[in-house]
Amino acid sequence: MKKIEAIIRPERLTETIKGLKSIGITGFTVSQVVGRGKQKDTKGVYRGKNYQVTLHPKVKLEIVLSDYLVESTIQTVVKAAQTGEEGDGKIYVYPILEAYNIRTGKFDDDIDDLVNREEGL
Amino acid sequence: MKKIEAIIRPERLTETIKGLKSIGITGFTVSQVVGRGKQKDTKGVYRGKNYQVTLHPKVKLEIVLSDYLVESTIQTVVKAAQTGEEGDGKIYVYPILEAYNIRTGKFDDDIDDLVNREEGL
Amino acid sequence: MKKIEAIIRPERLTETIKGLKSIGITGFTVSQVVGRGKQKDTKGVYRGKNYQVTLHPKVKLEIVLSDYLVESTIQTVVKAAQTGEEGDGKIYVYPILEAYNIRTGKFDDDIDDLVNREEGL
Ligand SMILES: Nc1ncnc2c1ncn2[C@@H]1O[C@H](COP(=O)(O)OP(=O)(O)OP(=O)(O)O)[C@@H](O)[C@H]1O
Ligand SMILES: Nc1ncnc2c1ncn2[C@@H]1O[C@H](COP(=O)(O)OP(=O)(O)OP(=O)(O)O)[C@@H](O)[C@H]1O
Ligand SMILES: Nc1ncnc2c1ncn2[C@@H]1O[C@H](COP(=O)(O)OP(=O)(O)OP(=O)(O)O)[C@@H](O)[C@H]1O
Ligand SMILES: [Mg+2]
Ligand SMILES: [Mg+2]
Ligand SMILES: [Mg+2]
Question: Given phi > 0 = left and psi -120 to 50 = alpha, else beta, which region is B15?
């Protein structure tokens, strides 16, 4: 089990959620963040108290899923979130050790995912 | 050391914090998120521009703790956050490689937790 | 590749970003959180419905970087975010399995970091 964390442009969120749905991924968590990537401009140079850092609004999308879904999910997010301009964002993959569904109190594991898939989720 | 991340109903946060306190867990971080789980309804079908995805407000609770506390903490969160209705949320467990306390600049490790525990924290 | 997550005082964010920039780290994500650490006071005792937990506003700073940058980045964050008073916050280190740049659709790996570094990033 893995977590895919995608930091994307807010205006690409709806398209990205549609893309995920089209490959059967309907579970995810979204939060508002701000950030910066590599700075290639000459702005933002140190000027003591006057120094201001511009942070860009982004959306963080977190998707916990079975290992076999990681590759197709990354491709789907890249396709839906990409504009080709600087600032399109990042995708990070984390290991998940255990997952539980609070309603059932049971382990939410890979087998569970496979069963749902066979049922045509 | 592990991180337990619980995505719960906002209205169960106070009860969950009480539960954590009752087992000696007082350190945690909370953030506001929105999300979706499995979609079992027929709403939300694609309709081009009219398509709207409903995202439900949830609270993300993050608790970094020693390995020996993971199981009891999960049980406590499930008990406090569960309503039995769909949408109760998820618990995910992540590995943590290192932890530091910024005030002391020192490693915040398992042994530290054990020492605090013996002192009756 | 690792993620450093620092939970710091909001008023130390600008100083911390300056410190990161001074060691060549310009990519990061920031979010607003609230939290608690160890409770050493006698306030907050259970009083049924009247019980209220005070959550302190903090800022979560997330930095994904190559392994060789972890130690110096932690030292830099501690130096910039530390006041010496309780509540200065925590630093947690997580493993990252994969990283992608959405604009290029390519893997964002350690070698990439080294190349950028040689180019004087
Ligand atoms: N190293 C990093 N760690 C954590 N978050 C990052 C990092 N780099 C970028 N981000 C997040 O991703 C967002 C978008 O970054 P961005 O796409 O500009 O990265 P970049 O490396 O500069 O690539 P590009 O050249 O395509 O702009 C940032 O606003 C920030 O939230
Ligand atoms: N796969 C996932 N990845 C990340 N977050 C998720 C995932 N699934 C659910 N969540 C988060 O948990 C919240 C609650 O999900 P929910 O409890 O409805 O899950 P579910 O699998 O549909 O279970 P139930 O049948 O009990 O409703 C969502 O709003 C979302 O924030
Ligand atoms: N175990 C934890 N898990 C997750 N987040 C934590 C944990 N402990 C603290 N935090 C986060 O760090 C913030 C600051 O914690 P704080 O610095 O007060 O920790 P502390 O252990 O009480 O140290 P100090 O004695 O220096 O106050 C909290 O508000 C919370 O957001
Ligand atoms: Mg950029
Ligand atoms: Mg659900
Ligand atoms: Mg404290």
Answer: alpha
Among A91, A90, A94, A89, smallest CA distance to A64 is for A94
pLDDT in tens, B6-28: 999 999 999 999 999 999 999 99
CA distance A18 to A77: 10
Full DSSP string of B34-92: EEE----SS-S--BTBT-----EEEEEEEEEE-GGGHHHHHHHHHHHH--SSTT--EEE
| CB-based contact C83:C11 (threshold 8 Å) | no
Topology of C2-36+53-96 in CATH?
Alpha-Beta Plaits (3.30.70)
Q: Which atom of ligand 3 is nearest to the CA of B108?
A: 21
Cβ contact, residue pair C88, B102, below 8 Å = yes
The CATH number of the domain covering residues in A2-36+55-118 = 3.30.70.120
* CB contact at 8 A, A63 and A96: no
User: ipTM beyond 0.85?
Assistant: yes
CATH of domain B2-35+53-118: 3.30.70.120
| DSSP strands (E only) in chain C | 2-8, 28-36, 56-65, 90-95, 98-101, 106-107
Binary contact (A51, C18; C-beta < 8 A): yes
Domain boundaries, chain B: 2-35+53-118
- Residue C26's closest chain A neighbor by CA? A38
CA distance C41 to chain B (A): 11
pLDDT digits (tens, 9 = 90+) for C26-67: 999 999 999 999 876 445 444 445 456 789 999 999 999 999
Ligand 2 lined by B103 (C-beta under 6 Å): no
